[in-house]
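Q: What would this chain look like folded?
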Amino acid sequence: MYGLGAGAYGTLTENGFDDPQWQPLREVASQALEQLGWTELQEHLPSLTEDCRAALRKWPDTL
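A: My prediction, written as structure tokens:
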């Protein structure tokens, strides 16, 4: 059977992402990021994040 057990989802006081069931996903995600050139992009992330936030501030939440 596939899927994550209850421990992987965490609780209000515990982070489920620390559960070892997530390890295979972490490994595959790391490989995918490496193939996409994450090491080159990583240094630009703070600037990119701020640019995205600035763009989003142009459309404030109206709810």
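The helical segments are 23-35, 38-42, 45-57.
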